[in-house]
Amino acid sequence: MITNRRKKIKPFYNPPHLLLKQIVMILLYAELTSWHKRAFLQWAFQLKNLIHAGAGAKQICCFGLNPHVVWEMTSRCNLKCIHCHAFGGDASYDELSKEEAKAMIDQIASLGIRSFVFTGGEPLLREDLFDLIEYAKSMGFTVFIATNGTLITKEVAKLLRKFDVGVVIGLDAMNSETHDRIRGVAGAFDAVIKGIENCIAENLYLHLNIVAAKQNFDEIGRIIDYGDEIGVFSYFIYRFVPFGRGEEIRDYELGSADFKALLDLILEKQREVRAIIIPVASPEYWAYMLQKRGIHNRRVINFLGRFFGGCLAGKGMMYIKPNGDVWACPFLPVQVGNVRKERIDMIKENLEQARYASARSTRDCNNCKYEKVCGGCKTRMEEDMKCPLKR
User: Fold this and answer.
1) Rounded distance, CA 22 to CA 42, Å?
2) What pLDDT score does 6 carry?
């Protein structure tokens, strides 16, 4: 048991001006999305979850809050998801050890970043997960675990409650046939639903990840409705990116018309549900939202860019691979450093200074008035994927 450690990370109310900015940010978001007042207030008054979700947030962006750290702590996984960007399956030979991980956590704490996500592969397969969660909590981090949910037993859920961990669970359909086909293992759907139920029983912060592709597009609304029924606090809707294992199923990627339909679906559902919905790999959402509201003034858009940052690559996300390599995004394999070899503060500088340009963003984003709230997805290289604002 870790005791009497001096926390390095400031509490949520320090500095006060950041807390004020977060309040303005979420009120602006509710107004711009036309979030139904009653649904919004039901969400906002879950203060414990709200503080957990917004730890240190300076902006809401394409991949959640700016800044935060995601550590892919193992490649090992019990599923074989066809869209897995990390090639989850067997553990890699050069994963960071527990002591290396603690040293990394120490350095990240010194940066003032407050939100830390343990992911994989499947993080629950790593034996030292809860030791490292306890260590991160002792430093003052707000902690999440991103999991496929199938291994969350009642006992695991109680441990997650003990350490006050937010739980991020992937769910890609509301029927076993589709979900199991995507996840590559029979019985995955029944197991994840049981894991979700165990989280609910312990009143855990619950977040759902949904990967939006052609083969499950009709399921997205149903999953969001299910989450609303059980009290999910937040969602990430991932536009499927054919990266990692997903390169083998490129034809599942959404075309331009489907992508626009996805943005419309998210806006429609956001108005209704008692949870915040954040698109991932879809920074155009923020620009599309403003355009739908008739906001075209560049000064107003630039002001809103202080709160909504679009693409997070190079801004505030640090994605750390099992061997310590650091990327700006899980779908953008540009190594900017390695935590075994370089100091975290230097790696952070590399992240902010590196150039992340795609053919699409270079072609479409120059001189676009919405650039401050969007910036284009740096992973999108396909010539036929047009910006929905230009259709």
Assistant:
1) 17
2) 58
Q: How far apart (Å, rounded) are the C-alpha atoms in residues 78 and 388?
A: 37
pLDDT band at 386 (very low <50, low <70, confident <90, very high): low
The pTM of the full predicted model, rounded to 2 decimals, is 0.94
Pairing between β-strand 206-212 and β-strand 234-239 as defined by DSSP bridges: parallel
Closest C-alpha among 18, 11, 34 to residue 66: 18
Q: What integer best gives the mean pLDDT of the chain?
A: 92
Rg over CA atoms, the chain: 20
70 in helix, strand or coil?
strand
Tokens at 187, concatenated: 């019985």
- The amino acid sitting at 170 is G
CB atoms inside a 10 Å sphere around CB 13: 9
Q: Is 100 helix (H, G, I), strand (E, B) or coil?
A: helix
Q: Sign of the CA dihedral 378, 380, 384, 390? A: negative
Per the CB < 8 A criterion, the answer to whether 326 and 317 are in contact is no
Q: How far is CA 260 from the centre of its chain?
A: 21
3 phi/psi in degrees, rounded to 5: -135, 155
CB 62: neighbour CB atoms within 10 A? 29
DSSP state of 255: -
- For the chain, the helix, strand and coil percentages under 3-state DSSP, each to the nearest 5: 45, 15, 40
User: Degrees (nearest 5) of the Cα angle 260, 265, 270?
Assistant: 130
Contact 206, 200 (CB under 8 A): yes
Give CA–CA dist 198/189, Å, rounded: 14
Give the pLDDT confidence score for residue 349 in this predicted structure: 92
Query: Are 119 and 70 a contacting pair, CB within 8 Å?
Result: yes
**DSSP E strand stretches across the chain:** 59-61, 64-66, 68-72, 115-119, 142-147, 166-170, 206-212, 234-239, 276-280, 308-310, 317-320, 325-327, 337-338
Pairing between β-strand 337-338 and β-strand 325-327 as defined by DSSP bridges: antiparallel
